[in-house]
C-alpha cells in the first residue's frame, strides 16, 4: 500500500518540505512518484513508520528545549529500529589534483578572453550618445490640453445641472395640451 504525500502530511501534521528534506538526507530510502497521482510522492508502510519515528524524535527534542534537530540522534534511532539500511552520506567533497589543475586552466583561459575583450573595447572609437530631447514643449502642450479638457468637463457638468433643473421644473408644472380640441385656448 502506498500513501500519497498529501494525505501523509495531513495525518501526521507535517510539512511536505520536511519530508523532502528527510528524503534528501536518505532517511526514507527510495521514494516513488506515482504517475497515476500526478507524479506526487507516495510512501510505503515502512517509510511511514520511519517518518513517524523521525517526527517523534524531533518532537521529543523540541520538548527538551532543543531548537535545532540533532541529526545524529535521529540517525541512531533509525539505525536501531530499521537496521543497517540507513547510510550516512558524506558531505565533504574530495577533488582530485588534476581536476583542480583543469579548473585553474579554465579560469586562466577566461581571464585571457576578458583581457582580449577589454583591449577590443579600448580600440573601438568612442561613440557619442544622441543629445537629450527637450520635452518642455510637449509637457506644456499636455498641460494646455488637460486644462481645456477640465474646462469642457466643467461646461458639461453645468449643462447637465441645468438640464436637471429644467426637468425638475417640468415635473412641477401642470401639463398643458398643445392641441385645441374644443376650440379653447
Describe this structure in words.
With 185 residues, the chain is mainly alpha-helical. It is built from 6 helices and 3 strands. The chain has a 3-stranded antiparallel β-sheet. Helix 3 runs antiparallel to helix 4. The longest helix has 37 residues, at 136-172. The model has no long low-confidence stretch (mean pLDDT 81).
Q: List the uncertain runs.
A: none
Order of the strands making up the biggest sheet: 1-3-2
Number of strands: 3
Question: Beta-strand percentage?
Answer: under 5%
- Quote the average pLDDT: 81
Distance between the termini: 100 Å
Overall shape: it is flat
Radius of gyration: 41 Å
How is the biggest beta sheet arranged? 3 strands, antiparallel
Structural class: mainly alpha
Tell me roughly what share of residues is in helical segments.
55-70%
Number of discrete helical segments: 6
Order of helices and strands: EHHEEHHHH
Keywords: Coiled coil
Protein name: MerR family transcriptional regulator
InterPro entries: DNA-bd_dom_put_sf, MerR-type_HTH_dom
Coiled coil: 139-173
